Amino acid sequence: MDDFSPLFYASKVFWFLIQPLNLVLFLLAVWFVVGWFGWRKLRGATLLLSFLILALASWTSLGALMLNPLEERFPRPPTPDKVAGIIVLGGGLEGAINLARGGYDINSGGDRYLEAAVLARRYPDSRIVISGGTGTVMLEGEGDADTAVRLFTALGIPQDRLVLEGESRNTFENVENIRKLVTPGPDETWLLVTSAFHMPRSIGLFRKAGFPVTPWPVDYRTSGQEGIGVFRDNPADSLAATTMAIREWIGLIAYKFTGRIDSVFPGPRA
Question: Is 4 exposed, middle or buried (0-12, 13-18, 19+ CB in 10 A)?
């Protein structure tokens, strides 16, 4: 994946700069600098913009309203009679903690692994593909594919059923590397397990790669009943939802712009 390293690092820097909390901190730094130079009007505008960003992201239902269309895009289909493989995209395990402690601690996206374990028991002849390396630039951590071995074997799933891909750093690399490891048969059903808000971008990538998968969304973050309002959730969760939604929508636009997906908002096909 070296050909894509410049884009990978550029995306990490861009996202670091524009996520709401960091953007507010940068604006406050600008507020301090312009105040030093005595630019009072610009200082006032900078402070007001900082407050508006923080208020919208933390105190309103903006994040849920942005996430909900992503989560509703691919409803879970009827349960298949037979499944050849279950693909789990990384992002649900605490890499830094698991590297230090040797466990399998999950984070808010851990539903991916819990649901995959349930499906693995339901379809005992299926293969389980786990894709996820270390996608951070500065922090050290264990890749999800490495941790998942301990988790699945602890849940009674034999290791010889696991297909591990531990080099990918983002969703694009997940799909590219999975395609090199497994080839679906013409009549086989492969389930794609990932967070519901992440499903449109993931499906778009698999379609572009010519790898047919059946979406199996998990890890919902919205009820669909939030509506427009203030203080619908605690500020920390609202900020997290807004940050997540902005990142996913930007990811869709960026992947469409770079030709990695064919539509800015992939959806079900008739």
Answer: middle
